[in-house]
Amino acid sequence: MNKKLFENEYVQTSLVFINQEQTIYSYRWKQANKYLSPEMYQTETRRHRDYIQKYKPTFVMADFQESQFIISADLQPFVKTQVLDKMVETGTKKLAIIPPEDNVLKMSIEQTLEEQTAAPYAIRFFESVDEAKIWFVKKDIWHAYAHKL
């Protein structure tokens, strides 16, 4: 079941219910986000933070395929404290990133995530939303095996 949370000209957000215990908070940036000022980007980022804190999703999917906004070095710490760190507090297990094709835009996302290497949730990049969804529901076979020992 999908629940649309919010949509404007810059972003669309939804909550996907996998089962009673697992949810995906999904946000998809739109091409029009290139018109966002840094302050407007911060407002949109705070909205993501608020939804993550409210719904405490098991998984988060950030779809940047259409994004045209470069996350500047000045904004990267803001994204880290407002979204990435909140995912630690809410118990998120996995973060899937679907990057844009543009290398400069992709690099700004990678730089934002650089300091998250010690995060207790897994972070992976995917070429498609479908690949990310498979990763979310796929059981870690080695982890399951280790618990049986």
Radius of gyration, CA atoms, in whole angstroms? 15 Å
Number of helices: 5
Within CATH, the superfamily carries the name: STAS domain
**Biggest sheet strand line-up:** 1-2-3-4-5-6
Q: CATH architecture, please?
A: 2-Layer Sandwich
Tell me what you see in this structure.
The structure is a single chain. The protein is an alpha/beta fold and 149 residues long. It has a single domain (2-148), classed as 2-Layer Sandwich (Transcription Regulator spoIIAA), CATH 3.30.750.24. It has 5 helices and 6 strands. It has helices at residues 38-55, 76-90, 103-113, 129-137, 141-148; strands at 2-7, 11-17, 23-29, 59-63, 94-98, 122-125. The protein has a 6-stranded mixed beta sheet with strand order 1-2-3-4-5-6, sandwiched between helices. Strand 4, helix 2 and strand 5 form a beta-alpha-beta unit. It is globular and about 40 Å long.
